[in-house]
Recover the amino acids of this structure.
């Protein structure tokens, strides 16, 4: 049995009186690629934000051997949890290279940072070509690549991706997922939130389906893809 | 900039600028001592703008009450170096105290308001600025601390031993009037503040501020303690304001709450925005321009009208502010990012790539 890397128990997120996430429990094991799918407003992003400590929440979150629901957002990257935020969140007036450097903000191992930078330019050659360009002038897909590259610069153990396909052309979505697949193949543990359920399930080994703040189905990706309920609700059949 | 040897041309340029800055007060004094005073106040506003630029330009936090920190610095100096309490501490003791108190005020303002952004933060800081001013106005009862709206007079000038900055002295066959001596002091302080700002901009903290300004969640995800770093911006900006305030107090020898009205906060913000938020040189240019323009207009509007129409048509005071406002509108229309906007230097990593 593989080690559990992150586990949420009875996770709850409230905005004022409204509960966006209503006591859900899930876990991601080491080297696993897991997705959280569901419709708009199901509570997927709130769940990720709570995991990354960008939102206050109730319930326990364990990461590695540590309980992290008492920590604050900036304390997680040093522990290896990297969030690629919804809407990419690139630093638009900084150059591509400066954005990537910010991803390694918490690190001080200069040689290691240089190695990782080369690795990212190999994985995402587009970023290398545009290193000196201001991030705000990149296309949406390139910005998404930059956001992923920036997260990888933190040398994470767990990569948390929030809707990487959002607002992108289908061809670009393919490319982004190709990148995620490559990163996953290198052994990265990934938790992915996606509205594009088909793409997500084809990439992942397991999936959770969220509906109005609760997890309605949890299964292997293969079985979710075959599940008639999932097919009807999320795969447009 | 770091570790780079200056070229011959740059050295000549720097020497020329230094010589011009050193000769400037004597040139101005030959026109009228008033112009040296105006220049001194312009430099004070440059100091203020550079302080506010840390908060607004670097960290992207809109602060409409910045003048409050100037007030804290000014009153600290006034109370500790005047007959009001009959305390006469030397300025090198008071200035750090003033900076410290302003810094504390910055933290007091910052701590509870850091969750706010944009307009909301602007409103809270605006309120804070007014609270400080009204405090100064009313802290004369039941115990007279600030002397209320009458203000504090007879404030000591800066003094080192027998050398007073307000008195006239002869040196190397030149006559140094009080304003000229303050000018040189201000120049030294300004140089220090510029160096600190340049170092800050290129530091880890500077990069963290920029990241927060651009995207707070991504900054947090990159491991930046956004709360503390924002607080630091408030504290540092406030400290610079406090130092400028102390100098203002000594130069003017008089402070009253009237010097710290909302208008002043807005003026400093206008200097930062007009010059180019985030760019140190732009902010300096903005502050100089907005300090000198009203004064130049004050002295030129009347003769201009007389030359054009043969008599005075419009009260110079009215026309002056009209031209001033119009110039601001035009600048913002055609240079929305400021006269001299921040250009993100392609440094370090991008250099290595090529």
């Amino acid at each position: 049995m593989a080690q559990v890397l992150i586990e949420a128990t009875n996770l709850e997120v409230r905005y004022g009186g409204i509960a966006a996430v209503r006591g859900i429990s899930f876990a991601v094991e080491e080297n696993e690629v897991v997705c959280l799918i569901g419709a708009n407003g199901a509570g997927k992003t709130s769940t990720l934000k709570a995991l990354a400590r960008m939102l206050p929440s109730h319930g326990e979150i364990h990461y590695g051997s540590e309980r992290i629901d008492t920590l604050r957002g900036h304390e997680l990257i040093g522990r290896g949890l990297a969030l690629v935020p919804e809407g990419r969140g690139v630093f638009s007036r900084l150059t591509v290279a400066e954005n990537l450097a910010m991803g390694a903000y918490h690190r001080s191992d200069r040689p290691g940072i240089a190695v990782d930078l080369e690795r990212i330019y190999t994985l995402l050659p587009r970023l290398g070509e545009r290193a000196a360009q201001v991030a705000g002038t990149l296309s949406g897909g390139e910005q998404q690549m930059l956001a992923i590259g920036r997260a990888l610069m933190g040398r994470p153990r767990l990569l948390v991706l929030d809707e990487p396909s959002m607002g992108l052309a289908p061809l670009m979505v393919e490319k982004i997922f190709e990148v995620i697949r490559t990163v996953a193949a290198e052994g990265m543990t990934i938790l992915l939130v996606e509205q594009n359920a088909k793409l997500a399930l084809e990439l992942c080994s397991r999936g959770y389906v969220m509906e109005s703040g609760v997890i309605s189905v949890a299964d292997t990706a293969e079985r979710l893809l075959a599940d008639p309920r999932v097919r009807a609700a999320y795969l447009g059949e | 900039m770091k570790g780079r040897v200056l070229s011959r041309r740059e050295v000549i340029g720097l020497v020329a600028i230094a010589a011009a800055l050193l000769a400037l007060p004597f040139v101005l004094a030959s026109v009228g001592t008033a112009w040296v005073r105006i220049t001194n106040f312009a430099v004070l506003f440059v100091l203020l703008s550079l302080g506010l630029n840390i908060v607004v330009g670097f960290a992207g936090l809109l602060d409409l009450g910045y003048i409050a920190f100037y007030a804290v610095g000014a009153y600290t100096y006034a109370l500790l170096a005047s007959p009001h309490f009959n305390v006469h501490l030397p300025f090198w003791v008071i200035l750090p105290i003033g900076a410290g108190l302003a810094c504390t005020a910055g933290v007091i303002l910052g701590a509870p308001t850091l969750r706010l952004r944009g307009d909301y933060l602007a409103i809270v800081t605006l309120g804070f600025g007014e609270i400080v001013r009204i405090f100064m106005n009313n802290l004369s009862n039941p115990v007279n601390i600030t002397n209320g709206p009458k203000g504090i007079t007879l404030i000591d000038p800066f003094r080192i031993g027998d050398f007073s900055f307000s008195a006239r002295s002869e040196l190397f066959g030149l006559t140094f009037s009080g304003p000229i001596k303050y000018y040189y002091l201000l120049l030294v302080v300004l140089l220090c503040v510029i160096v600190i700002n340049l170092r800050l901009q290129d530091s880890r903290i500077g990069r963290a501020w920029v990241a927060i300004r651009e995207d707070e969640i991504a900054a947090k995800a990159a491991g930046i303690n956004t709360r503390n770093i924002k607080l630091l911006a408030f504290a540092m900006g406030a400290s610079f304001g406090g130092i400028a305030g102390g100098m203002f107090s000594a130069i003017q020898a008089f402070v009253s709450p009237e010097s710290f009205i909302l208008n002043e906060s807005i003026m400093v913000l206008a200097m930062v925005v007009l010059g180019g938020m985030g760019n140190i040189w732009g902010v300096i240019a903005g502050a100089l321009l907005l300090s000198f323009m009203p004064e130049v207009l004050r002295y030129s509007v009347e003769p201009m009208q007389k030359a054009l129409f043969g008599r005075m048509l419009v009260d110079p005071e009215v026309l002056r502010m009209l031209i001033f406002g119009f110039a601001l509108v035009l600048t913002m229309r055609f240079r929305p990012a400021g006269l001299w906007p921040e250009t993100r230097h392609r440094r370090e990593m991008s250099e290595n790539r090529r």
Summary: The CA atoms of residues 53 and 70 of chain A lie 8 Å apart. Strands of chain A lie at 4-15, 18-29, 33-38, 58-63, 66-67, 81-84, 158-162, 189-194, 206-211, 214-220.
